[in-house]
Amino acid sequence: MPNPPEPAIRPLGASDFEAVRRLWASTEGLGVGPGDSAEGIERFVTRNPGLSLVAEDAGTIVGSILCGHDGRRGFIYRLAVTPDHRRKGLAAELVRRSLAGLKEAGIERCLLLVQTENEGARKFWASMRGRLRGDLVGFSIDV
User: Fold this and answer.
1) Backbone phi, then psi, for 112, in 5-degree steps?
2) What would the pLDDT profile of 8-30 be if each residue is shown by its tens digit?
3) What percent of the chain has pLDDT over 90?
4) What is the per-residue pLDDT for 23?
5) 138 within a domain of the structure (yes/no)
6) In the 3-class helix/strand/coil scheme, how is the chain assigned residue by residue?
7) Entry pTM
8) Per-residue pLDDT tens for 67-96?
9) Per the CB 3.0–4.6 Å rule, which of 26, 38, 49, 72 could disulfide with 17?
10) What range does the domain containing 44 cover?
11) Looking at the domain assignment, is residue 137 inside a domain?
């Protein structure tokens, strides 16, 4: 019997916003917050075309990455994969493609934040050659 087709990876589009928000809300260590409205996501994707991606399997969004840059540094804001699609290389492929897009845009470094207690995310990012920065502390300011 042939293997089922891999999830298709494509740029995040406006028709995906609600499904992606649901994915984030249901993913441990993520959730949704300020800026995660459809309007906020649309502004971000418009400023950073082609860097944010979704993985779709049989018409369902099963993975997403929200990635962009400010002209100097890249930043991965969200990475989520449904539990039934994990440990199959999908998250790594989403990251590879977004990083390739950053490199093509001339960006040399990408940053991201992980909740301290999210051990699974910490292990994943280490496996992606992420370097834990003990010299930084994250701050957040609501405006």
Assistant:
1) -160, 160
2) 999 999 999 999 999 999 998 88
3) 80
4) 97
5) no
6) CCCCCCCEEEECCHHHHHHHHHHHHHCCCCCCCCCCCHHHHHHHHHHCCCCCEEEEECCEEEEEEEEEECCCCEEEEEEEECHHHCCCCHHHHHHHHHHHHHHHCCCCCEEECCCCCCHHHHHHHHHCCCCCCCCCCCCCCCC
7) 0.92
8) 999 999 999 999 999 999 999 999 999 999
9) 38
10) 8-127
11) no
Domain count across the chain: 1
Do 49 and 11 contact (CB within 8 A), yes or no? yes
Single out the residue of 123, 127, 102, 141 nearest to residue 29, CA to CA: 123
For residue 142, is it within any domain? Answer: no
Let me know: does 93 contact 36? Beta carbons within 8 Å.
no
Q: What is the model's pLDDT at position 113? A: 92
C-alpha angle 15-22-77 in degrees, rounded to nearest 5? 85
In a domain, 77, yes or no: yes
Q: What is the dihedral of CA 57, 59, 65, 69, to 10 degrees?
A: 130
Determine the Cα–Cα distance for residues 94 and 143; give it in Å rounded to an integer: 30
Q: What is the domain-level CATH number for residue 101?
A: 3.40.630.30
